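User: Teach me something about this protein's shape.
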Amino acid sequence: MRTRLIQAATPERRAALYDEIEALSQPTTSYYVRVAIATTIATFGLLANSTAVVIGAMLVAPLMGPIFGVALGLAAGDRALLRQASLSETLGALLAFAIAAASGLAPLQLGLDTEILSRTAPTLYDLVVALASGVAGAYAMVDERISASLPGVAISTALVPPLAAAGLCFSDGQYEWAFGAFLLFVANFVAIQLAAASVFIVFGMPNTRIVARLDAPSLARRFAVSVLALLLVGAFLTRTLVDLVERHRIDAAITQELSSQLRSSTGAVLGDFTTSEEEETLVVVANVLTPQEFPPEQVGLFEDALHRVVDPRIHLVVRSLISKDFDRSGSVFVPRSATEAQTAVDRQTELLRAATELLTGRMSEHPGARLVELRREGTEEPIRLTAVVRAPTAVDPAQVASLEAALAERLGAPISLVVRTVLTRAADAARFLYDTTDAHETPSPEALARHRRIEELLQRELVSGSGRVLNEVVESGGESGPRTLRVHLRSPSPITPEEVGRVEAALREVVSPELDLIVRYELGAEVSPLGFVAVGADGAPHRP
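Assistant: First, the predicted structure itself:
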């Protein structure tokens, strides 16, 4: 004899279950006490960002009972049960929201963490889970053999935590998040009661007490509001799911394209990035680990690539986080992720490594010179490389041509090389180091005294009180005859030729009447609430 997969419950079981659901739907003192306890546990579990505590609250919460009452009241047409269960569920939900909102006003808050935020953006997935949970819960009640699974159903539906999250967000002023969390509760409520009502009808529960007609038109009228609510919530949650999938697609495309672009800059690695919508613009702020900051022109190339591949609305901001790797031999560029390690053997990476090795070796032939960064500009041919070098004297065009020829021979391809020299001067107590004019000659006491007088005069006439920082003073020419004094400084405002002429006249009176002054300056300054702050070569701030 075959056993039917689904069969109506016995009259005795249906009558007992009907009475049980009526009892669960009663707005009793015990019901509200359990709601208060579950909400308190859930609220502080969310604040502590503890998943285990939140699960405990789900097991205590009694809100599932009235939902089954609403489902059975609609299925059987029992208006008294429907009113009673609806009142219990509404008052229980309001109580939970109020307790959570009041708790959110307490001092010593830790902020809204992931356990809360995860419940503020429901998607269609949550609605599917609620439908399945409603079927499982109702089936477990009807069939005594699987009633032990009810605790698992209570955990999966999570009725109290969304209300607690809504209350906490509301008290924190995050009304959009509060609406999202409350919408999750509404989605669970509508889906569970419709799924449970379907199970009750299949198992013949409405036949227990014939209080209304059970034909299809009558059932359609009774469930019209619930079905409409389910469709509206489902449409909204579908939209949020589509938006979430699109954001994930954009994030993945940004990660892939930026990582690809950064391979042309030796040692640069994408750390992380954030995106935000501002009117019609998608602002992407990327944190990049790099040995040298990226100039605006390079950021513009990255942004153009993102426009082509990802989204033309993107506005890119690159935050250069200076990060350098060294071993005992000097700078190295170590892949920082599995993705980069897998692509480290591609032609472009090998090209840059070979070029870096050659240029590092050639820089050792120039005293005091050091390769700081090497990057490829674009991907077209010929290969265009930009090298940043720190050195006491500028790398001249003839030296660049020699380096370019050596690179072309080493790499076996036409090379266009640009060398950007960052001038640096190193000195000990006696002299400037790496001085190519006479590296072994110690300056005379008279020359050192003259240099000190020059710096004192420059500080007094050109720097003091202006927020400027004197970086370098280089004197050239013989002991007699015309002399040239080149001064490099940083200034918060432009330096006029008239000002240079005044300082040159003062220098001619002290140093030499044939001295010519040339000032090279860069616009820039550090400012505090009290005025300009000069930062010396040692990095320590001091008042000018």
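Now, about its shape. The chain has four domains: 11-214, 248-327, 345-423, 445-542. Confidence is low (pLDDT under 50) at residues 1-5, 336-345, 533-544. If you'd like, I can walk through any region in more detail.
User: That's plenty for now, thanks!
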